[in-house]
Amino acid sequence: MNIRLLFACAALAAPLAHAHVTLEQTSATAGAYQKLTFRVGHGCKGSPTHTLVVTLPDGFNGAKPMPKTGWALSGTANQVTWKGGPLLDAHYDEFVMQVKLPASVGKHYFKVTQLCDQGRMDWDAVPDASGAKLASPAPFIEITPAVAGAPHH
Ligand SMILES: [Cu+2]
Questions:
Q1: Boundaries of each YncI copper-binding domain copy (predicted)?
Q2: Domains in the chain, please, with CATH?
């Protein structure tokens, strides 16, 4: 990573183009079966990524990861691990799963760990009341109330 990218990352100057590990879906309906797309924008300070571990927040379950060429899947009830790659720092990739969302509305944060040839990144920081910018923000989704009478699967 060149020095300009490093600063852009730290300052969140370009949150969409160069945005850490983020979730494509920003909101979803309580209780729904939801596709989640985790976007990996770069490696660990320039080092290629070989593993991505996503830990689901409380209340999320039934994670069904989407198989991905070149990556082996493993995991537990509340965690999905992709191992493979390597995903070079210069490249971008997406890691997809389907989950059943809980009924509890509001923002829910995912802990994502990125393991690289050299070093690791833990995307687990949750905003506090100060609103200070976070160096390694956790991806999140905002759950909104289900509409009464909507079809239920
Ligand atoms: Cu970043």
A1: 20-75, 76-143
A2: 19-126+137-144 (2.60.40.2230)
